[in-house]
UniProtKB/TrEMBL annotation:
This is Trehalose-6-phosphate synthase. It comes from the Bacteria. Belongs to the glycosyltransferase 20 family. GO terms for biological process: trehalose biosynthetic process.
Amino acid sequence: MAVTQGARILVASNRGPVSYARTETGALMARRGGGGLVSGLSAIGPDADAVWVCSALGDGDREAVRRTGGALDPSETGGQRVRMLGIDPGVHADAYNGIANSVLWFVHHMLYQTPLEPVFDKEFRRQWASYEAYNRAFAEALAQEAAEGAAVLVQDYHLALTPRMLRGLRPDLRIGHFSHTPWAPPEYFRLLPDDIAAQVLGGILGADRAAFLTRRWADAFTDCCHAVLGPGIPSGTRVGVHGLGADADFLRERAHRPDVDERMAVLRKQIGSAPDGTPRRTIVRVDRTELSKNIVRGLLAYEELLQSRPEWRERVVHVAFAYPSRQDLAVYRAYTAEVRRIAEEINSRYGTPDWTPVELHVKDDFARSLAAYRLADVALVNPIRDGMNLVAKEVPVVSDEGCALVLSREAGAHEELGDDAVTVNPYDIGGTAAALHEALSMPAKERAERTKALAARATALPPGRWFLDQLAALEV
Ligand code: G6P
C-alpha cells in the first residue's frame, strides 16, 4: 500500500528510523533511532515531500506493518513518512544475516580469517536468491512511491541490486547509491563468485551516482569495476565522495543534559584515584561488538601496556563499552564472549582490591557513552577497517578537557583526522600499546590543542550537509 502518491525524495535502507517492540503490558511501542541518515534527512525540512522505505526487522515491526499496511503513523516516526516492508522473515534472514552481514560485510571489511572461509555452495546460492527477492521488494515499493523524476537515495550493501532493478521499472528516476562501508580492493572483492561480483557491481551501476564516504573506498569500487567488468565504468554512472561528519549542535546539547552528568559521576567513582590520590587516567572505547571494530586486539594492547609499562598499573582504567550487535550470528556471539573473557582475564591478572583495570559495559546506553566521551583522556578507535567511524569524530566534539585520539589508519575518518591523531596499524598489538602510552603521556596543552583541531575537522560536514549534497549531486 502506498504511503502517498508520488514522493519527490525517497530514501531506502534496511533499517528504518523507527522500530517497534512489545512492552510488558503487551502494547506496541515505537522507538526512534538515531544516526546520520535520520538527522541528515531532517535537513530537508518537514514540508519536503519525502518517504523513507525500510524493512520490518522483528516481530514488533511486523505487527506494526500488519496493523498499518506498511504506512506507519507519522506521530510515531517523528513526522517522517515511512513505508515499512513486511518481507517474509525467512527471506529477510537469508538476505540480511546470510548475504549482507555474513558475505558482503565480510568482503568489504576483509574479515574472513581461516582457510576454510568463505564457502560459496548451494546454501549460498539459495540465500542469494533471497537477497535478490529482498532487493526486488525494495525496488517495487520505491517504483510505486516515487513521483515522476523523483530522487531516490538507496543505502548500503543490503541494497546493492536495487538501483539496477529500480532503473528497469522506472527509467525516469534519478537514483543514487551510497555505501556506508569501506569497499574491498579487487583482489579481495574477487573472492566472490564471478557472476555474483558482476551482479553486485552491476546493481550499483544501475544508479546515476555511486557514492562513498572517502576517496579510498570510491577508488576501490572503480578498481573492482575495471577488474570484474572490464575497463571504464559502464552505463555512465558517476562516482562521488561525501564524507559524513559529527552533528556538533546535537551532540553538544545532548552531552550536557542532567542524565549525562549523572553518569559521569558514576563513571568517575568507578574509575577512582591512583595510590597517590590523583584521578586515574581513562582510556575509552565505544563500539558495537562488531568483528571489524577489533575490540579484542584493543584489550590485548592494553594488557601489553600494563605488562611492559608497569608505571601505568593502578593509574589508568580502560572503560570499554561494547554494545551487542547482530547476535543472530554465531560468530558475533562467539566474539562477544571472547571480549568478555579477555576483559575478565586482564582484571584477574592485574586488578587489585582498589583497582579494576577494565570496566567493560555491554548494555547500550547513549547517555553513558557521552559521559565517557566527556571525561576520556584517551579514545581508542582501532578498527580493522571502517567506512568512516563516527566515534572518532564525536569524542573531540564533546570532550571536556581534551582527549588524545588513538586512531586506526584503516578507518575512513583517518583521512581527515590523521594529522592530529596517534595513528596505529590495527593488527599491531605492540604498536597499539606504544600508541596508548604516547597518548597517555601527551602533555595536557598539546592534547587540548589537538582536540580542538580534530573537532573542527570532525564537524566540517554535518549530516544535513552530507544529505543535501547527495541530493544536489543527483540534479544533473
Ligand atoms: C553500521 C555501518 C552501516 C550499516 C549498519 C548496519 O552503522 O556503518 O554501513 O548499515 O552498521 O547495522 P545493523 O545493526 O543494521 O546490522
